[in-house]
Give the backbone structure.
Amino acid sequence: MYTSKYPIKMYLMLSSLILVMIELTGCGGIEVGVEDISSTETETREGKGIEFGIEPTPMPAQISYTNDFYGFQFDYPETWRLTEGDQSIILKKGINRLGINFRRVDEDIHPDFSRTGVGTGDIIYRGKINFMGKVIPVKVLLSELKSKAVFYGENSFIEVEELVFAIALEDLDTDFIEVDLTEEILLEANLILESFARTAAVIEADPPSGPTGLKAHLNIKDSFQLGGWEKVRLHFLLKNHSETPVYLLKWFTPLEGVAGDIFEVKRDGQILPYLGILASRTDPTPESYVLLEPGESVYSEIDIGTSYDFSHPGTYKIKFHSPRSSHFAYSEGELATTLDELGPVYIPSDEVSVELIGSPPGIGLTLRRTPDEAKELILAYLRDQKPDLVQDLNLPIEEIPIEGPWEALQAQIFRVKEGIFRNESFLIRGVDVIQLGSTMGGQGITSLVLTDLDQDGQTELLFVYSSGSGIHQSRIGMYAPAYDEYRIFEADISYLGNLRLYSENPPDVRVQVVEADRENLILRYLDMIGNLSIEGHEGQVRLVMHVFPGLPAEIQQKISSD
């Protein structure tokens, strides 16, 4: 087992030398690359459905959204998809996009509607709606009798108390000349906007702040269901409550992400250790600073679940640490230029709470790791295994883009794309890194199957990996956390060539020979050479391949036992 303090697509590109294929077979296996060819035959299967009759279309359920920082909320149909930015919300239904930009009167933001410019046409008045207690006009851009866009408010902006909104309904995926917004979509957008209401904002009228005039304001969803595969999103707002402009070094704040232990996180009163990356620093530059004018604020959103352990139910309390190595200044001439000039900067912070509710058995170990987080974990693992490894090793990685391991095991599989560790694959589960075989210049993983091989109610991950370049062999491995979550079990049989795993009748898994026909650029699936089982003997668990009798001699000659 390797556990690190660092946090944690297999698509191979088709080329003239390397087959890159991800095949979700109709029998439960996943094949991810087996030989040196550039394309393969594909087969299309048509499924049959059962018709039970026609039912009336129900009204879509409503989802509520609340923005505590700016103090508003609204409802939208579940048929729309919401994307949240720092000071914007995008609601999409198919090709239709309702863009909502917002700010406080004292903040600087410009509306960002993705089409460049506005097409020609006439602005036509189309009635009014009630938006947060204020009656505003609805205006449609009409061209050749087609509705091209809808704008809300008198002058493209809507002021409600201290908030300013810029709102437009558009279709940005279609050529402008073809766009024609329907009456139905206009009605739905109007209903969404009419549901807007004010709420109490997080920021106090005149909160206490430190000597710099800065204060950190935090916000987080009240509760999460463990195992819901939802990021633990923490909103961070830093505001200058003073009457003087302040330059602040962004290091060790969420304005640069999470690159150190910058939060105090407690679960049921117990302080949690930091599990994230530890950034190394060179001398600061002017670009390392952010300038906050009086009353101005800056905002960032992070997934705090990648840096602290949110894998257990309980009540979590989160507070921002004042940076221990930072700097602030009141003019450009006072900016630090060396590390020696840095020191503690006191920034008071709100404390927020989140409740993590228990999850079904086997769920809730951790949240997904990004490639950058996985890279740090894999690098730490490799350096632990090979202490003489160069410190600045380039390790470009990608995640194998299949959902099975995450859904069944809450694990991800990453592959190294190039370099001395090219094609090596690693399973990451929580902060644990487990290498899936050793390629030694070979193709690495070529086939995956998830099944309950021993029918104990818990899933195993079975895989084939190819090792050695030129003349290569395939070996079969298994990750079975029910037996040992920190190691790989390997069958004691290897094959000189390519194999795949085949599971037509789960949990049964068979092993099949694969041959590449380079002339016709196809893969040929040949003999089934055996099946797999999990067996125990004297307290030891083994992955066993049972070789079928009567195999052709040329196949038998390529099978060897350890």
